[in-house]
Write a structure and sequence with these properties.
Blueprint: H1 11-39, E1 42-50, E2 57-62, H2 73-85, E3 90-93, H3 107-113, E4 122-124, H4 128-134, H5 149-162, E5 165-167, E6 171-176, E7 179-183, H6 194-197, E8 206-210, E9 226-229, E10 258-261, E11 267-270, E12 288-296
Parallel strand pairs: 1-12, 2-3, 3-4, 4-5, 7-8, 8-9, 9-11
Antiparallel strand pairs: 2-12, 6-7, 10-11
GO cellular component, one term: membrane
Domain Calcineurin-like phosphoesterase: 57-234
Organism: Deinococcus terrestris
Length: 297
């Protein structure tokens, strides 16, 4: 019953409260959907011609795992299982493995990554979050880092090697007579050297270059067969029509995701990655395990 001296109902206030409640529910629903999308990965398959190949090549590409903050062993295990099930000839890993403090042991991550199997091997490069996890910019002036951060990088590289993963830091390998795989240091935090990564490649060999950050593409010193990158997460949050409002690239959406082109007509593929950074949210930008079939040409 209404009190005798109570004011009459205010329809405007009621509309405001209903709107506030509805908006909160909508944001909660969208946030829940965003969290669900962040962990609902899929497989992206693609084909391309790679000059210099003498026989087809199946490549699995995993990048931006971001283990430690929002991503744990369960997610890594599922990604490894998916990559192994494709039975690729070659496994390539695009960096940003770690999103942890510099004193955190990466053993749980490596236990899962050690299960990756490919007859031509498993090769990787570092990303900017890996450098953060080494302690490269934990204290002081950006880039100064904690004492011994560079030694920490080498210790983690050795642990990766013991798990069957070769980290290519401005280096490369002939993984097949007709194929050179090179990898460069991170563009933001490392000292990338494309020429060093491709120094051993023969003129008649196909070349694959791993670069965590696709912003390297416009500055390639010469044509490369194919560059594989991650880093951008596709923007992580994409909106209908406008795409990704924020992409961690000086070129905006140019290298946000998918097939792109660099200097000298070099083709590149930018994966949306698997983990998340900043917030555990994705929208219209699902995580991906990338499976590429490369053919002679």
């Amino acid at each position: 019953m209404k009190a005798p001296n109570s004011p009459p109902p205010d329809p405007g206030r009621r509309r405001f409260l209903r709107g506030l409640l509805g908006g909160g529910l909508a944001l909660g629903t969208l946030g829940g959907m965003g969290v669900a999308q962040a962990y609902d990965f899929g497989t992206v398959r693609g084909e391309a011609v790679l000059p210099g190949l003498r026989s087809p090549l199946r490549v699995a590409f995993l990048t931006d795992l971001h283990y430690g903050l929002y991503i744990f062993e369960r997610q890594i295990r599922a990604w490894v299982d998916t990559a192994n099930a494709a039975r690729p000839d070659l496994m390539l890993l695009g960096g940003d493995f770690l999103d942890v403090r510099s004193d955190v042991d990466p053993a749980p991550l490596l236990t899962e990554l050690a299960r990756l199997r490919a007859p031509l091997g498993v090769y990787a490069v570092w990303g900017n979050h890996d450098y953060g996890s080494f302690g490269a910019y934990d204290r002081g002036v950006l880039g100064q880092g904690i004492p011994r951060w560079a030694e920490r990088r080498e210790e983690v590289a050795a642990a990766f090697a013991a798990s069957g993963i070769t980290v290519l830091r401005n280096a490369g390998r002939a993984v097949r007579d007709d194929l050179w795989v090179g990898g460069v240091d991170d563009l933001w935090r490392g000292e990338p050297d494309v020429a060093a990564a491709l120094a051993g490649a023969g003129e008649d060999q196909a070349s694959l270059l791993l670069s965590h950050n696709p912003d390297l593409l416009p500055d390639l010193p010469r044509r490369v067969g194919l560059v594989l990158s991650g880093h951008t997460h596709g923007g992580q949050i994409r909106l209908p029509i406008v795409g990704a409002p924020v992409v961690p690239s000086r070129y905006g959406q140019r290298y946000a995701m998918g097939w792109v082109q660099g200097a000298h007509g070099t083709p590149g593929y930018v994966s949306r990655g698997l983990g998340v950074s900043g917030l555990p949210l994705r929208n219209l930008c699902p995580p991906e395990v990338t499976l590429l079939t490369l053919r002679p040409g």
